């Protein structure tokens, strides 16, 4: 799954729908927070996630862990003091989706909790490579290319982590053939890019398969065709929450 964006209730419904159990292995390709209403629930779940759940870094986690939380901690100084709340000011520039401010106001989240979550997020991998039924699957938030390919395009390895979480051109991947790249980041509700009217985008290109599983669930109010999707890699069956 990918791009749950604070839609914790829907995420739980999806786990129920797919009958997620101890024998399964769930990979979430990033962006569990921001935009949606239940960021606190999502982060608490993430903190206590079972061993058979693996997370991959998304750009929203990255910003939370490397920009927003460190900025907040620095701005309140000795935050372990009782008066930290007096020194805390909501900061739009460093909390674009009001995720942190929302959790502080609604859920009594403390700087220590935020620091702990940021630390956990900084441990996340940027991609996973799996072999299932003899086939290579690469799971990443936005796009993946090998180090060699990246160096050929950009001259050095500088910025490759940002590439994994931000790049919107998954087709830059040219290893294989026969590999499958699974990613999110760009919702398929859009007309451009990977737009498939809220269905999972699947396309063969130069012998590899590209699958965008971000069906834009968090935008459902404005885009009724949006959906939450899960793909079962052993047979590539796709599940939608709203079906
Ligand atoms: Mn993203």
Helical segment count: 8
Roughly how many Å apart are the termini? 16 Å
Major beta sheet, strand line-up: 3-4-5-7-6
Can you give the mean pLDDT? 95
Number of strands: 9
- Biggest sheet descriptor: 5 strands, mixed
The ordered string of helix (H) and strand (E) elements is HEHEHHHHEEHHEEEEE
Q: Which consecutive residue ranges, at least 5 long each, have pLDDT under 50?
A: none
The outline comes out as globular
Q: Which structural class do the helices and strands define?
A: alpha/beta
Helix content: 25-40%
Relative strand content: 15-25%
Ions, cofactors and other bound molecules: manganese (II) ion
State Rg.
18 Å
Can you put this structure into words, describing what you see?
This protein has a domain at 9-19 and 126-243. A hairpin with a 4-residue loop joins strand 8 and strand 9. Helices cover 31% and strands 16% of the residues. Helix 3 (59-75) runs antiparallel to helix 6 (111-122). By secondary structure, it is an alpha/beta fold. The chain binds manganese (II) ion. Manganese (II) ion binds at residues 31, 58-60, 141, 185.
């Amino acid at each position: 799954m990918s791009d749950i964006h604070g839609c914790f209730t829907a995420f739980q419904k999806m786990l129920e729908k797919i009958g997620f159990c101890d024998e399964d292995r769930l990979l979430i390709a990033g962006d569990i927070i921001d935009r949606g209403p239940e960021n606190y629930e999502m982060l608490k779940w993430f903190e206590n996630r079972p061993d058979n759940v693996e997370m991959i870094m998304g750009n929203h986690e990255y910003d939370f862990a490397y920009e927003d939380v460190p900025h907040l901690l620095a701005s309140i100084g000795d935050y372990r003091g009782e008066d930290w709340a007096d020194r805390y000011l909501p900061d739009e520039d460093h909390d674009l989706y009001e995720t942190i401010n929302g959790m502080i106001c609604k859920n009594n989240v403390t700087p220590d909790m935020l620091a702990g979550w940021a630390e956990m997020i900084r441990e996340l991998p940027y991609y996973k490579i799996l072999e299932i039924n003899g086939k290579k699957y690469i799971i990443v938030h936005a796009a993946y290319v090998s180090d060699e390919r990246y160096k050929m395009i950009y001259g050095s390895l500088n910025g490759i982590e940002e590439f994994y979480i931000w790049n919107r051109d998954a087709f830059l991947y040219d290893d294989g053939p026969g590999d499958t790249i699974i990613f999110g980041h760009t919702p398929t509700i859009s007309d451009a890019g990977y737009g498939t009217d809220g269905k999972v985008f699947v396309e063969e290109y130069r012998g590899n398969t590209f699958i965008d599983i971000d069906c834009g669930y968090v935008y459902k109010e404005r885009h009724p065709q949006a959906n939450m999707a899960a793909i079962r890699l052993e047979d590539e069956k796709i599940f939608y929450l709203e079906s």
